[in-house]
Write a structure and sequence with these properties.
By secondary structure, the protein is an alpha/beta fold. The chain contains 3 helices and 10 strands, in the order ααβαβββββββββ. The chain has a 7-stranded mixed beta sheet with strand order 3-2-1-7-8-9-10. α2 runs parallel beside α3. The chain is globular, with a radius of gyration of 29 Å.
Length: about 240
């Protein structure tokens, strides 16, 4: 007598990763990644156009035009505290489920920025405001906030070696300043009230630079356009 054995085959569905149903979170993450890539491609195209235009412009003369356009009546004090360097330090948490889009191209101020200004430009500022004393300073905001002058004992102060040296009354630390006329040794208190001057820039397509100007904290916006080898302020 033959015994028939019945084999029962259980077939379990196998999910291939590419065919598996994606979670809404994964779909969102991928969409953000694609958007980031697309934005970086747009930024690259804008950056390359800005680069081409920048190669045809004279930014040295732009700095002179910006200084010449300053309204002297807005500076009523003896000292002008010029913010030469500004940095913003941010401390933030990162969510591992969020897509962190890294911007690959600087389209804000890649070819003309605060870094474009030199010690010579501050001397020119001092020659235009020849009755003022120009004191370059630096400031950072956010995490690690600090501000102060360029002191002679700091390595970053070497760019101002051709400037005169003054002293803080309280600490006697030496700092750099420029004055065209004043010959007396400068000693000032930390309580000295000064006019403040700060610039921020936006490079704009069409041979333009947007100048955000802050005098004593008051903001004004100007647009300078490069036309036929000259910088013209758009009214």
């Amino acid at each position: 007598m033959k015994v028939k054995i019945l084999y029962i085959l259980f077939i379990f569905p196998v999910l291939i990763p590419s065919q598996a149903k994606r979670s809404p979170e994964k779909e969102w993450y991928n969409s953000q990644r694609i958007k980031c890539q697309e934005q970086n491609q747009k930024d690259k195209a804008e950056y390359m156009r800005l680069k081409k235009e920048a190669s045809e412009m004279d930014f040295y003369e732009l700095t002179r035009a910006i200084i010449n356009d300053l309204d002297k009546t807005q500076f009523t004090r003896k000292y002008i505290n010029f913010c030469y360097q500004f940095s913003q330090l941010l401390c933030d948490t990162v969510d591992p489920e969020e897509y962190n889009c890294i911007k690959e191209y600087n389209t804000k101020d890649p070819f003309y920025s605060r870094k474009s200004w030199t010690a010579g430009d501050l001397k020119y500022l001092g020659s235009v405001f020849d009755d003022k004393i120009i004191i370059p300073s630096k400031k950072s905001s956010g995490f690690g906030y600090k501000e102060g002058f360029y002191y002679t004992d700091e390595e970053t102060s070497s760019i101002f070696n051709s400037f005169k040296k003054g002293k803080k009354e309280e600490s006697e630390r030496e700092f750099f300043y420029y004055s065209k006329k004043d010959k007396t040794p400068l000693v000032i208190s930390s309580e000295e009230v000064m006019d403040t001057l700060f610039f921020d820039f936006q490079n704009v397509l069409g041979y333009k630079v947007e100048v955000n100007q802050y005098i004593n904290g008051k903001k004004s916006v100007k647009i300078f356009e490069y036309q036929n080898g000259e910088w013209v302020k758009n009214e």
